[in-house]
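Take one record.
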Amino acid sequence: MINVLLDNNIIIDNLLGSRSNLFPVSKKVYEILFDNEIYQGYISSSSLDNIEYILFSELKKTINLSNKQINAVVHAAIKDLLTKVKLAKTPSYIDIDYDDIEGSQIIASAKAIDAKVITRDTGMIKKYPDIAMHADVFLKQHDKSSTNIPFLDLKATQQELSTELEQGFDRVLNSGWYILGPEVEAFEAEYAEYCEAKHCVGVANGLDALHLALLALDVQPGDEVIVPSNTYIATWLAVSQCGAIPVPVEPDPQTYNIDPAKIEAAITPRTKVILPVHLYGQPVDMDPILAIAKKHGLRVLEDGAQAHGARYKGKRLGAHGDVVAWSFYPGKNLGAYGDGGAITTNDPEIADRINVLRNYGSRVKYVNEVRGFNSRLDPLQAAALRVKLKVLDEWNIRRTNIAACYSNELINTGLLLPFVSEWAEPAWHLYVIQHPQRDALQKQLSVAGIGSLIHYPIPPHLQAAYKELGFGQGYFPIAEDIHQNILSLPIGPQLNNTDTVIAALKVITST
């Protein structure tokens, strides 16, 4: 989403009928801004008084009404305006240009939200060429850029929740508590309840969540942990950080998740934990894995980094196994504005041990029970996550609707589309297709202005980081085949032009 801040002259042109005919370019800016969801319109908070004054003065010249009546008209016009645009506050740290106080305040507001100022004021454009843009130039750029679709628009998530996020950040900044504390505790309680789990412990990132969870399950150097061959490398890295050995198991080719039917053959006397990953937001078939774990006396750690809000057989992911590790990386369904992570569990001992491990091995300040780590969820990130948790289900529904649209419209394109088991309610973190000419397809989408990503181009066993394990090309053929053919399509909750993606894919795959 693109931030656009309207200068006063553009606003006045549209609010005063006498000027809208004189300056049609201003009217066209309004039409484009409010008819296209790729833009978020703003006005500077410092502009309101001036807009009100100009409107009142101009109306007083042209209509025969009392001052009270004119004020009512002006206030109604501004109230209507604020239903279409957001206010951008003027930061307190700006350098005032005393030759143009109003202009410098507008520019400062635009800088604070990374916006361009759309104006007819040539003086402002000359003084601030990197920020101020003439309305005519904006119209020309819109014609060129309106078809560009990013893979994921992280800025748009912030823009949709900007007021609530600002309130949360202010609450933390004004609290005087910047490490752990009440904001983190509040998020932990809310997220545990959301996940239908008894406990949640916030940590610094998703990798730490996996690592500390493995330590809490008493994984020691030399132990073995069963992992998917098809996953992001962080799953394996957490095992290695414990000095343990990752033992890969191939996925089910339909779901991309670890195949429960292949797990038992990988168990040895050194196996300690089974670590399934709910990849792409698709729940793993947990019941057979839990049965295998029970049969062999093993623990189960779930990697839920891509599956916030997903359900398995009607129950939300969060406590099917012994413990679940979560990532709040910005691109996740529940993403922070920096790194963040957590674990959820129904086991109070696991929660207590991770609570101690994340904080230097201490539960009482300066008293260290074990050799711990510094891995604490930041209160500012917790504040953001609390805001986004409230809309997670709504945003997941948007993702589900986009996925359904793709699945319905791309059936006869020759693409291999995602398979969803009847018992699964995915979070649709990613919508992953397969095509034998994946790289050519991605290039053609890029030419069409459509972003896409590969999750992931190289499987963990072929990464240089794990060459000592001796897994060469062809050792895990299912994972290798997946990594050669998969492509992730845009599916963010703010995506509003799915039809453009579908149309492009139909054209590309038909040639």
About this structure: The CA atoms of residues 56 and 355 lie 60 Å apart. The mean pLDDT is 93.
